[in-house]
Structures are given as structure tokens and as C-alpha cells.
Design brief:
three-stranded antiparallel β-sheet; Arc Repressor Mutant, subunit A; 3 domains; alpha+beta
Length: about 500
């Protein structure tokens, strides 16, 4: 029997504020100190205070920046901003919840009724976005029969984004998470690193008989899969759960409404507990916090400060720089690389204005050179060295000068690779490297003529093949000249001399 998956997502995002949600303790995401290997140095239970630990007599204070981050995210996701909102107490007991309740939002969230377009034909609706505080973190030492709890994370601002059940495929869920992560990073509201728990996904999934699916038929029994911390886990859990629920239904059995976890090693979902309902949490308005009135002028101010979003930047890159969609997508996905590319292009403007003799197509050729060298050679160097763009020693100014030299054929492509590598290692400007290492391209016909004659004399077979009409033989001869000149020969001039000699 065929079943139709119906999938909704609940995504929790730790916000990158300086302090926690309701107290002055520093936020681990932005303030944690790290050693040279990037490991956190904060000792467990040291970034805490009486407020985030829920001591009697303490009072919470709302973090305004966290509210602004939620509103900016809501605007980016086309949501309706609530003019009036409030916080509620969500009551439940868990070892990493110091108060015995969580300050969250229930019936009056900050935003609702938005959407995110995955493509021209697929829109995922956003049901609500609300703000709450994060819990602590349980640590389970391997081989031990006890658990430890670290409250450093308790009280960190946590934004929850809830979608409507508009997703039908695992790959759609994965794409939604990737697009959302990129938007959050462009807004700078969160690092949204899933492996660090800064963005956590929960999947709600049910199956419905394909033949019986109409607007008047209720959805199937919902199963929730908790705390998925990678795109692969999101997609894998959905695929497995579809298979599992299909087998259960085909046997004539009923799906149990429950919460399940994801075993990444076995790639299966495992039962955890019966799914709670809203009434189980005994929500009631938080008595220690005032309601929030969201002024329209405040919203308009935040809207004016929202940066260019990824989908708009991608279309601009295609139109303004004549990039392919694939090139633009890479540059937009890696924001630092995209910004670096634009700074390089900006640095070439003065040179292009001064060199009117280069013709109308000079800017287009410069952009093409820059995009090709950044997306291939520079990206490979960054990847091999395992460093990110901000740590790259090549300044946009020096990279622009490097592109100008390639455009003017002061260095060959082969020589350019040597120059770029030296720039990457030392941060020196290209002109000094070219002079130091004698890498300037040779275009003098008299100098190249003798090298060409030697190549012709030593490669009789290739010469004969060319005279028989084999064009590949000419490329071979050009390569021999390039090797003899250690990559300094101008290949266009070499080819021209070869053709003249071999007529």
C-alpha cells in the first residue's frame, strides 16, 4: 500500500547574544574562550548565577537583543509580527532544567504565519517563531553508571521555528535546514553550527494512505524524532521512519504517538517515551515578566537593517557578474568567500578605469579570471590547509593585483599557480614574488624562437603528426616549450611561432 509522508520541523537555534536570556551571565556561543585547538576552556558550572540556576527570590530580566534577533529572523522568513506577546512557564522535570520549569512562549509567540521558498514550486510555511531559554547539558561518561550535568548552557536564548507539515521528502527537509542555516548566518543572529548544538532539529512525521488523502481526512498519527544534530541525521531519520511506519501500517497495526531518538551508528530511530501533549506541560503566564508590546516603528527599524539575504545575493551575482548559477551558489553558500570575491572585483575598478586600452570586454574578462582562480585554486589551497577565508594571508588588494597581472599576461597560468602559492604562504604582494623568483612571462619572439626550434628538433614524431593534421600534436609541442621555459613562455606567442615554423 502507498503512503504519503507528512513532515513538519521544529528547529531550535541558540542566539548569538553577549549574555543569557534572563540574566547577565555570558553566552557561551559568543564569549567562550578557546585554546589553540578550538576546544572550550570554560569549566562546567562556572558560567552560572542565581537567576539562571533558578534560586528562590531571583527575578529574570528580558534580553532585548534576543527579542530583536527573533524579530529579524521572522522578517527574513516573511512572518507576521505579533503586536503583543508574552512569556509562559512550561513545567516539566528533567535533570538539566534547574528551575523545574522553562520560560518559553505558548499561545502568543513573537511571530507567526511566514514562509520560506525552497524553489519556484515549493514553499514551506512557518507556523510560529517563539523565544525561550535553553536547558543545561547532560554528560554521560563512557562505561560509567552515572551522568553529570553542566548548567553553563542553561538560560542561553533559544529561538524555536516551527513549520507547517508541508514537507514530503527527506531531501526537502535537509534543504530547508541548509537554507535556514545560511539565512541565520547572514543575519548574524547565530552561528547555527549543528555539530555544536547551536542549531538542533526535531522532526514530526506521519504517514497517510495516498488514496484516502483529501482535505477533509485527518493526518496520520504523529511521531517526533528528537535532537537531530546534522543534515545527514535529519534526512536519514526521515527515510528510516518512513520505512518503519510503512511496515507497521502494512501489518495492519497502529502507529504509537511517541518520541523517538536517532541512533547514528545503526541508522535507526529508537523509542524514548510516549509523546507529551500541551496540557502535560501545564503552561501558564510567567508571573515575573511583563508582556511584550512590539511597536511598529521598532519593527520597521529592524527591517531596514536586515542585510541582503542569500537568495537575493545569488540572483544579483548572476546578473551583475555574469556568473553561472553554480558559481553564484558556491560564493553565496560561503559568505566569507563571496565577500572576498566582491572586494577583489572592487579593487580592480581603478585599474580598469586607467586602462581604457583594454577594451569594453576587460571588466568581464577580469571577473571571469577572478571567479575562476578564487573558486578553483584559492579554494583548493584553503581546503588543503584547513583554514578559513578570514585567516587567509592574501589580501583582496594583492589578489586583485594578481588578477591584473594575469589579464595583462605578465605571468602565465603556470607561473600564476606558483605566485599564488607563495602569496598564500607568505602574504607578499605578487610583484615582489615575480621579481624574486624570476617568474615574469616571456613574450620575446627572439628568446622563444630558439626554444621552439629545440622542441621541433627533439620531437620528430609530434612534428610529423601535426603535419598530418593532428591538432593535439601542436598542444604537445607547446607543452614542451612551456616545460623548457619553466612555465614562463607566453603560450599564445609559442603557438604562433610553432605554426610559422611548421608550415
Amino acid at each position: 500500500m502507498d503512503y504519503k509522508p507528512t513532515i513538519g520541523l521544529e528547529i531550535h537555534v541558540e542566539l548569538k547574544t553577549e549574555s543569557k536570556m534572563f540574566c547577565a551571565c555570558k553566552n557561551m556561543q559568543t564569549s567562550v574562550s578557546k585554546n589553540t585547538n578550538g576546544h572550550e576552556l570554560e569549566e562546567p558550572n562556572t558560567v552560572v548565577c542565581p537567576v539562571c540556576m533558578g534560586f528562590p527570590g531571583t527575578l529574570p530580566v528580558i534580553n532585548k537583543k534576543a527579542v530583536e534577533y527573533v524579530l529579524e529572523t521572522a522578517l527574513a522568513l516573511n512572518c507576521q509580527i505579533s503586536g503583543f506577546s508574552k512569556f509562559d512557564r512550561k513545567n516539566y522535570f528533567y535533570p538539566d532544567l534547574p528551575k523545574g520549569y522553562q520560560i518559553s512562549q505558548y499561545d502568543l509567540p513573537l511571530a507567526r504565519s511566514g514562509f520560506l521558498n525552497l524553489s519556484k514550486s515549493k514553499k514551506i510555511r512557518i507556523r510560529r517563531i517563539h523565544l525561550e531559554e535553553d536547558t543545561g547539558k547532560l554528560i554521560h561518561p563512557e562505561g560509567e553508571d552515572y551522568s553529570l550535568v553542566d548548567f553553563n548552557r542553561a538560560g542561553v536564548p533559544l529561538m524555536e521555528i516551527v513549520t507547517e507539515p508541508d514537507i514530503e521528502l527527506a531531501k526537502e527537509a535537509g534543504k530547508f535546514c541548509r537554507v535556514l542555516q545560511l539565512i541565520l548566518r547572514y543575519l548574524k543572529v547565530s552561528n547555527a553550527d549543528m555539530e555544536k548544538g547551536e542549531m538542533r532539529c526535531e522532526v514530526n512525521i506521519s504517514l497517510q494512505n495516498e488514496k484516502r488523502k483529501t482535505k477533509n481526512v485527518k493526518l496520520g498519527t504523529k511521531v517526533e524524532i528528537k535532537n537531530l544534530n546534522s543534515f545527514r541525521a535529519v534526512e536519514g531519520a526521515i527515510k528510516h521512519e518512513i520505512k518503519r511506519q510503512t511496515k507497521v501500517l502494512n501489518k495492519g497495526e497502529k502507529i504509537i504517538q511517541e518520541t523517538r531518538g536517532w541512533d547514528a551508528n545503526e541508522e535507526v530511530t529508537i523509542p524514548q517515551r510516549i509523546k507529551e501533549e500541551a496540557q502535560d506541560y501545564r503552561y501558564f503566564p510567567e508571573p515575573d515578566l511583563p508582556p511584550l508590546k512590539i511597536d511598529k516603528s521598532w519593527v520597521l527599524k529592524l527591517k531596514s537593517e536586515i542585510p541582503e539575504l542569500p537568495h537575493l545575493k545569488q540572483e544579483r551575482f548572476i546578473k551583475e557578474y555574469n556568473l553561472t548559477r553554480a558559481q553564484a551558489k558556491i560564493l553565496v553558500a560561503n559568505k566569507d568567500l563571496g565577500d572576498y570575491f566582491e572586494r577583489v572585483i572592487s579593487e580592480t575598478k581603478a585599474w580598469l578605469e586607467a586602462r581604457k586600452d583594454l577594451g569594453k570586454g576587460a571588466r568581464a574578462r577580469t571577473i571571469k579570471l577572478a571567479s575562476n582562480w578564487i573558486l578553483s585554486n584559492l579554494q583548493n589551497l584553503l581546503k588543503d590547509s584547513q583554514i578559513k577565508v578570514p585567516q587567509c594571508k592574501i589580501s583582496p588588494e594583492n589578489f586583485a593585483e594578481f588578477i591584473e597581472m594575469l589579464h595583462e599576461q605578465k605571468i602565465s597560468s603556470t607561473g600564476g599557480q606558483k605566485v599564488l602559492l607563495e602569496m598564500f604562504k607568505t602574504g607578499k604582494d605578487p610583484s615582489h614574488i615575480i621579481e624574486e623568483k624570476n617568474l615574469a612571462q616571456v613574450g620575446d619572439r627572439a628568446v622563444l624562437g630558439s626554444i621552439v626550434d629545440k622542441a621541433i628538433k627533439e620531437n620528430d614524431v609530434a612534428v610529423g603528426d601535426f603535419k598530418k593534421g593532428k591538432i593535439q600534436a601542436l598542444k604537445f609541442l607547446v607543452g614542451q616549450v612551456m616545460r623548457e621555459s619553466k612555465g614562463r613562455a607566453n603560450p599564445q606567442v609559442v603557438e604562433k611561432i610553432l605554426r610559422e615554423r611548421l608550415k
